Amino acid sequence: MISKKFAAIAATVALTFSLAACGGEGAGGDNTTSPTDNNTTSSGDNTGAAGEGKTVGVAMPTQTSERWIADGAAVEQGLKDAGFSVDIQFAGDDIPRQQEQIDQMITKGVDALIIASIDGKALATQLENAAAQNIPVIAYDRLINGSEHVDFYVTFDNYNVGIQQATSLLVGLGLKNVDGSDGDATGPFNIELFAGSPDDNNATFFFDGAWDTLKPYIDNGTLVVKSGQTDFGQVATQRWSQEEAQKRMDNLLTANYNDGTTVDGVLSPFDGISRGIITALSNKGYADDAMPIVSGQDAEAASVKLIQDGVQFATIFKDTRKLAAQSVDAAVTFLEGGTPTPNDTTTYDNEVKVVPSFLLESDIVYADNIKELLVDSGYYTQEQIDKGGN
Question: Where is the segment annotated Disordered (predicted)?
Fold first, then answer.
């Protein structure tokens, strides 16, 4: 059960997110043009019992994606409203920089750490140091592997996110209906597969969920991966890079679709990757109103506009306001001397232990439910969607 304390934090975070959510690129733009990553320390009002005189260190991976800008702002505001001082730092997708930032937080004497890691296996030393100082560590959306000193994990049901990505692809192709029933289409359809960054633990969960959903259709010939690239290592996209996705899609088209055949659908695990794929398809002559079915994730404003315009087919909405609030609630609980209550104690094995986790649910965004999921909930305004950002 979600506590009253969590509900209050969530309300504050929701307001914060509505102001911060659109800090990223415009529609179809390059996701490397956001503000320069920087570090800030801010003080809370010290009105909360748990937070009085205490500081929480927040390590975020980058400011080159609008979701991490918004996550950082929401976590920071939630902590401040709980009475904490906050040391929030963004690492520019640079692993040594994130290691150094966390080391500095520990040296300064933070009382708890909330960490969204760049590389899930690169922070063992930092977590050893945190444990030596009795600093609880909350992994934020990305599991930290190879350490016993991960005290709690807040994330979404990432395997299910992968199922949803694949489901949206099947719906777009007409093989499934939105209600889960079988569609009228029969195929065969040519598809290509993309996965996330191999150093992000979530990427394999996304891909496994998607693969398990698509494999029966591939096995019976309804779906054809013309390139033959179906292993995670073949389809992974380092650092979730839009530019790398565009290059790979261009190569796939050149190598496999110069015989008059076309791509009917592309499994994409992230909206930035989706926009790179769409750019490559556009450059090869695919019109906006005849674009293959392309999935996505994170409901970035740029991609939501593309969905509204009929270019990208779908994305997965993970309401990170709830994620931020849950991480704040976990920090408050630890610093009040308690232990956060997980709703999953079996799934997330970090190679040393199974980390107690709190999993949140996600939704598939199609063109016809944008208003219901994103506007009516206050995540975006219609104007922000129409502009593809601020």
Answer: 27-54
